[in-house]
């Protein structure tokens, strides 16, 4: 046989082998995708979509956060409020049912387990309270609860919130007036346009950095942490592709820099001896026998994450919904006028003042219900679980969808409408029909701090400014919620500075 004939024959055989391998791989992919359907015929009704991708892209399609979105509307109408799908590369049961959601959250580590996608672990770190399991999570959460309980109504904490709120709100008077706006000659009048989401983030970050690390906004290290933290946040909601220059890769690198900065602060504190600042870090350092240095760094990062994103989004949601309801805004303003009328001009707000902000709390609850800052959480079944008529197979992902419960008209009348009065005399704040911060052993430990900070910020906002939404900007779920244009608002001082 001539060489060229032999080479041609070998090339043909290699091509056939490659084709066979490709076909076998495709067949394996199809079988692995659809095999769970065949092995678990008693799982809830639903569909798995295409191999590999499943229905993930449809599930994550952006939509207004005060709506269910096309995917959930379609699947709930076709299969009911509990259905199966194939999401995040794994067979999944999606629950839009309040009773099943409550059952899932209350049976953490017994029947279900936290199961966030691997790329999130890569950014948060293996010691993050958001991803650790079992006793490690319980230990970290107990520490977080102790910190929150000792901080929530502490006078120094409330004073810090108010000072930062006054600084942020007061800075708007020095913004350039909007085009065509008239000044009143007093130096503080005229309409200004403020990118409110950015301002809310500035406020929330300043508060949490002060409480966790004892840093003031003007310190250089604060600006450095914020710059890295913004890169970290962008990567957290990006496509998990670790290639230099991608948001995901930048986020991993940003976390390493933040970790290095926090470790440096820890070493400085240890070298300084018994001098105490009264912040979270002091408590962490006093618990040296309980936590490793890596756990302390992760705890700091978790605290920054929780105190930054959730709080700033909550404040933005309140401003967005109040900007569309003049009646509710008037009621909030009357409440804060009444509180302020009983205080001296420079007198600080107290825990007793916070307790008087009843209608403000109704507004906050309703903004959480309508805005759905946390749409769903990730869980995994540890064994075959039977609940009512449903079977959840062992190893399947389970997604309790909170927004579907919050927007269910059978549970909340006129569910699509912002109606804070629905909370008057209500105990829904702790019910299975209202879970804006999750539930069970993983209920967000800082939820009350977020509400306090939002209420204090709103106090100074409504007493100092009138505002309206500039243009058409709505909260969108990607699935993480954000305002596409940063929620620009037109503000006008109520009383010009003298």
From TrEMBL:
Q: Which UniProt keywords apply?
A: Heme, Iron, Membrane, Metal-binding, Monooxygenase, Oxidoreductase, Transmembrane, Transmembrane helix
Annotated protein name in UniProt: Cytochrome P450 724B1
Q: Which CDD domains match?
A: CYP90-like
The UniProt entry, under SUPFAM superfamilies, shows: Cytochrome P450
Cellular component per GO?
membrane
Compartments where found? Membrane
- Catalysis performed (reactions): campesterol + reduced [NADPH--hemoprotein reductase] + O2 = (22S)-22-hydroxycampesterol + oxidized [NADPH--hemoprotein reductase] + H2O + H(+)
Q: Which organism is it from?
A: Urochloa decumbens
